[in-house]
Amino acid sequence: MLSLSRNALIISRRLASAAPKTTTGIEHAETTKKTGEKHQMDQKKYKVEDYHKTNVWSYYKKEEDMESLRCKQPSNKKPDTQPKVTKKPDTESKDAKK
């Protein structure tokens, strides 16, 4: 009897709809795309001027410009060197002794 009810439960689950009970991201993406196509923004009202001056390579150009400002990366070909610390003469203690 137990196996009969278990089999009935499995069959009823298979017959149930496989569609999700909630919406997925696909419906939202399609709706947003349709809304965006209907409501085009006037580009002259866009406040960021640089937006219209960018192209496919803009990001890489900025990376290239900043490369000289970055710290050198360690290499497996050249061993790291320990930082050298130089001690400055303590002028305050000399003034206090006089």
UniProtKB/TrEMBL annotation:
GO terms under cellular component: mitochondrion; respiratory chain complex I
A Pfam family matched in the record: NDUFV3
Domain of life assignment: Eukaryota
InterPro entries associated with the record: NDUFV3
Protein name (database record): NADH dehydrogenase [ubiquinone] flavoprotein 3, mitochondrial
Segments crossing the lipid bilayer: none
Region Disordered, residue ranges: 17-43, 63-98
Record's compositionally biased regions (Basic and acidic residues): 27-43, 77-98
